[in-house]
Amino acid sequence: MDKVKHYEYLIVGGGITGAGVYRDLVLHNKKTLLIDKKDFMSQTSSQSSKMLHGGIRYLEHLEFSLVQEALHEKNTWKELAPDFTEELEFFIPIYKNSPHSFWKLYAGVKLYDSLSMFRNRPSGKLTKGQLLKKFPHLNSKGLIGAITYHDVIIDDKNFGKAIIESVSESHQAHTLESTEIIKISEESPFTITLKNEKQFTITADEVIFCTGPFTDKVMKKLEFSWKPKILPSKGSHLILDKNKIDCPNPVVIQEKNRIIFLIPHNDFVLLGTTELKLSPGDNFFDLDISEIEKKYLIKNFKHYFPRLEIENAIINQTAGVRPLVIKEGISENQAPGAASRQHLIFHPRNNCSILIGGKYTTFRKMAADVVSQIFSKRQEIYYPHLSLKPIHKSKS
To answer: Is the per-residue pLDDT at 1 higher than 50?
Structure first.
């Protein structure tokens, strides 16, 4: 065995983006190493709203291309990973004082269907009576009715792990958890120092950073020439006891500036999310919900379900940092809403790529963009159909 192991590709970051890049490269028969400082899928990618969705709220900002791309990916994974995905009907109750009118939202869900190329199950509308029959605990005061549309729910953590494990039998595929990048040389082939129980060295022709909200911190530690681009935004959820919260279908709670989802899963009901701006110097690992966020979610839940005792139904919580990105670099006075949900690729050094931004739903497209870009530079053929290989749960 060689004293210093060589890889064609090193991927730093084992969240859903890194998992997608890793799978795409291994399916192209590239000798690839995936590492993560913590466990794979242990941070942002397991703290999501556990949906594959088009982002219906982005229609208000006229981000049609983003929504169309995400809808395509949502419906693609619905077909490729039926063991992990479930399409549900989402209900948006409309009140007299709701931020958006009944007919505006009805037009929005019909546009949502059309942007999916009608791969979505059809949207619809309900009268007040029909809605209260389905959700008898819903606040009836000022209630007009509801708009419905369809999206997919998912077990984000286990799906991400399955993406990695789907290529684990390849002799070209290698993964290391609890492994941190310590140092990297200026030029390719890169000499890279890694550390887990001990410190060791590898070499790699290409390095791809998929470090999400941690990117600015990683670049600073590795002494890259890099202007900070991450606008860290914390998102938290409450996990509710399904026996205490009667929720047959997902409900979209319209808050003044954003929307909150109430989503039933097999063993729990998920309520979230928040959007709280963080400071770049904050610790982003293993976060917990704050009291401010908790009160915010409880308050909005009670507006819609005043008779349900949510405080006694809370069994857990999750919190993570969104990888929101500002292309030209951030300034202190920017709010999370100023950041794009589109993904971006940067090249701070030759043969070194940084993939940031985007959404959980679009990870396959993000991976395809960075891998095909690298292949084009190296005059190699990229085969987009390879990432369309189905994913199934292990039978063991």
So the answer is: no
